[in-house]
Amino acid sequence: MTEVNLWGALRPAAGGNASVSIQATTIRELLRKLEEQYPLMHPHLESGIAVSINGTIYQDNWSKEIPADAEVYLLPRIEGG
């Protein structure tokens, strides 16, 4: 199981929890399972998020594998230019 740390806006959608445990091997699978288990996260996931795995931020590479015992954070999507 992967422990996924949630930014503040996602916590109410997860029953107020600061983190949740999800069994997933890729970012895509993680996001799909989060939405299945916590449907209230859908608007946030739909509007765009970033996923940090062991300190590296991914915004579009959803096929990235999640290593065992990885430190995972869901963050608001980072915009810039």
Structure, explained:
With about 80 residues, the protein is an alpha+beta fold. It has helices at about 25-35, 40-45, and strands at about 1-5, 20, 50-55, 55-60, 70-75. The protein has a five-stranded mixed sheet with strand order 2-1-5-3-4. Strand 3 and strand 4 (about 55-60) form a beta hairpin. The protein starts with a strand and ends in a 5-residue tail after the last strand. The model has no long low-confidence stretch (mean pLDDT about 95).
Q: Can you write the helix and strand succession as a string? A: EEHHEEE
Helix and strand composition category: alpha+beta
Q: Please, what is the average pLDDT?
A: 93
Radius of gyration: 12 Å
Give the DSSP E fraction (strand runs of 2 or more residues): 25-35%
The tally of helices reads 2
Features of the shown structure:
2 helices; five-stranded mixed beta sheet; single chain; 21% helix; 81 residues; alpha+beta; globular
Brief digest:
The chain has two helices and five strands; from the N terminus they run ββααβββ. The chain has 81 residues and is an alpha+beta fold.
Furnish the topology, listing elements before pairings:
Layout: E1 2-6, E2 19-22, H1 27-37, H2 42-47, E3 49-53, E4 56-58, E5 72-76
Parallel strand pairs: 1-5
Antiparallel strand pairs: 1-2, 3-4, 3-5
